[in-house]
Hints:
Elements: E1 9-11, H1 18-28, H2 42-48, H3 52-62, E2 69-71, H4 73-84, E3 90-91, E4 93-95, E5 97-103, H5 109-112, E6 113-117, E7 127-131, E8 138-143, H6 144-153, E9 155-158, E10 163-170, E11 173-180, H7 183-188, E12 193-194, E13 197-198, E14 203-211, E15 214-222, E16 234-237, E17 241-249, E18 254-261
Parallel strand pairs: 1-2, 3-16, 5-11, 9-12, 14-18
Antiparallel strand pairs: 4-15, 5-8, 6-7, 8-13, 9-10, 10-11, 14-15, 16-17, 17-18
Amino acid sequence: PEVVNLGRLKLEGVVLSKSLIKSFIRKSLGRVSVDDLRFGTLRSLRRRGILPNVIREVILEVGVKVSDATVSWDNIASLNRKRIDPVTPRLMAVVDPVEVVIWGIPEAPGLRTLRLSNHPSNESLGARTVEVGRGDPVRVYLSRDDAETLSREGSIRLLEFCNIALKSYSHGVVEAYFTGVDVEQARRSGLKIVQWVPARDPVRVTIVKPEGLRLRTLRAVAESSLLQHGEGSVIQFVRVGFVKVEKVDRRSRRVGVVFTHE
């Protein structure tokens, strides 16, 4: 008889042990299945938004070896990103949102109703309309980190919109004022360019992000056009990462997504 020893293929940051997976499922009393995001199963990777061709490419690249081989999640994410980035629409969403009041935005049509491309280089993905709102002031959401940047540095640029400067930041209330639309001026001044979401009719988003054996839940808001995308869609939230849509409730304007990778 001839004995052939083959090494195992391991994936960093997930559970691959069949006995441990079975134990998780048994103890969960039906709350956990084989597509749980903490597992390294094919169903879990598909749920995350990893393409089948990427998994196949990784397996063929590693090959069959006598010793165990470990594949890093960063490697899988890098390959998947190359495949999906050119064909994935981009939208704005902010995690841990803070409302910012902006004064002095002119009542010009191009500053109150924006027409934004869904992808910087793929015109076939179309464009979307973002309604900023009427009157003065205008209210938008920034992430808490970006609100802190505005407070610390005094000025920032809202992506594809305008430049703003800090007016006041006290007791959790952030106020700013409009300083212009010139993106080149923003770049010369070294302003940080951040994503934002209009405070009128935002979409409430729950992002489930696997971190080892822990599932982290992030609360976010996104622009209204997210509701045009159905379950199973892959979206890139600008400066947040790629996500796969799992649940869409258009009536309550709530969406649940799974974090794929940055």
